[in-house]
Design a protein that fits this description.
Helices cover 82% and strands 0% of the residues. By secondary structure, it is mainly α. The chain has one domain. Helix 1 runs antiparallel to helix 2. 5% of the residues are buried.
Length: 60
Amino acid sequence: MDLNYLYSRHQISLVNADAAVDPGARIAHQQLSRAYGEMIRNLGGALHHTGECADKGIAR
């Protein structure tokens, strides 16, 4: 999965949560943002674990 896509979806979820009038919608968007954050952490860690980031000059 593309890390940039996950970052984008995470930010969109945060904006949607902030803009939500309905408490249920706000909670749903907050849960989505947390899920995207977890995917970002997992993918970021996997990239560092495999050395892929080091190959691309990405610092940890």
